[in-house]
Amino acid sequence: MTDLHTIEELLENSLPTSGEGYGLLSEAMRYSVLGGGKRLRAIMLIESFRLFSDDRDLERYTAYPFACALECIHAYSLVHDDLPAMDNDEFRRGSLTTHKRYGHAMGILTGDALLNYSMEIITRAGEELEKYKPDYCMQYMCNFMHAARILFTNAGAFGMIGGQVLDVEGFGEGSKIDETKLSLMCELKTSRLFQAALCCGAVLAGADESEISLLEDIGRMMGLAFQIRDDILDVTASFDETGKDTGSDEKNNKSTFVSVFGLDESREKVRILYEDIKGRLKQLPGNKSSFEMLFENLFSV
Ligand code: GRG
Predict the structure, then answer these.
(1) 7 lines ligand 1 (CB under 6 A)
(2) 144 and 127 in contact (C-beta within 8 Å)?
(3) Can you tell me the mean pLDDT for 179-208?
(4) What spacing in Å lies between the alpha carbon of 87 and ligand 1's midpoint?
(5) What is the predicted pLDDT for the residue at 134?
(6) Cβ-based neighbours of 34, under 8 Å, separated by 6 or more
């Protein structure tokens, strides 16, 4: 399993140093990314790469920067999601949310800067890649650009941001919502970054189309199960377990899997998705034990 310490070190080194640039921006960027986090998406991206390639140099030049960029995108989405105009949360990862610590305007700007920084990481890595074995560079570069498109499309207007639009426009608030709508919102808002993690890693390692498509399915189901689990934790867990105020969905009058289906049915949905994910995982090549362990930790409720 990818070492959490390695990812923390990568993130530490790829973010601007505190005090660099203007005002408190670099400090706020570091605060938002480095303050805890399970690093699920980074781990999944690197583990997905390893299913298809054991070229550790290529992994360093491609999967590592993509993993950092993805964590920056994820962190920006949380910073913006916590803003008063969205969920208005005070705590995240056991600490004050970015806007509570640095002010509302800085919360917006820090999210903006992190999204932009993810592109800076990727484009810088693209230039570095050219120096790595330039004789083979063309195929690597094509995979690199393909992975970049997957990452930014899944995070963008037709992916995660689109899902957030459905959420803030009241798709899930108060009004009657059916399972299809709720699932669509979660697939966009939550699954897309997991799909990006799995597919980017695989594309960078040279996986074929049918393997990418299988990973896309696994990422979609994984995000759905993850969101349902998050909805369950919002009503059953404590601050110490989640690092944020629970009961937030009810406070915001949000329709969630728990409010629509109740706790028991929601747990059953996670169980069914988990069984499905395990079945599909078996169809992939390579050593899947890291994924099996990760999913068991997350979903054996
Ligand atoms: C603001 C454009 C924009 C998008 C926000 C991600 C998101 C979209 C909203 C978050 C809502 C939420 C809390 C959903 C539950 C699933 C989720 C993404 C939880 C947080 O992810 P973890 O548990 O976080 O992987 P850590 O802190 O471990 O990195």
Answers:
(1) no
(2) no
(3) 96
(4) 11
(5) 67
(6) 8, 11, 12, 15
Q: How far is Cα 31 from Cα 101, in angstroms, rounded to an integer?
A: 9
Q: Say what the pLDDT of residue 242 is.
A: 80
| Closest-lying ligand 1 atom to the alpha carbon of residue 161 | 2
Q: Where are the alpha helices (DSSP H) in the chain?
A: 4-14, 25-34, 40-52, 56-58, 64-81, 98-102, 104-131, 137-155, 160-166, 179-186, 192-204, 209-236, 239-242, 248-251, 257-281, 289-299
Residue nearest to atom 5 of ligand 1 (CA): 77
Task: State whether the beta carbon of 231 lies less than 6 angstroms from ligand 1.
Answer: no
Write the CA distances from 232 to 102, 121, 181, 226, 252, integer angstroms: 30, 35, 18, 10, 16
Give per-residue pLDDT as tens, 108-152: 999 999 999 999 999 999 999 877 766 667 888 999 999 999 999
Does the pLDDT at position 174 exceed 80?
no
Would you say residue 233 has pLDDT above 80?
A: yes
Rounded to the nearest angstrom, the distance between the alpha carbon of 77 and the centre of ligand 1 is 7
Enter the pTM of the model.
0.95
Q: Among 76, 81, 90, 251, which residue has the most ligand 1 atoms within 8 Å of its CB, making it the best to mutate? A: 81
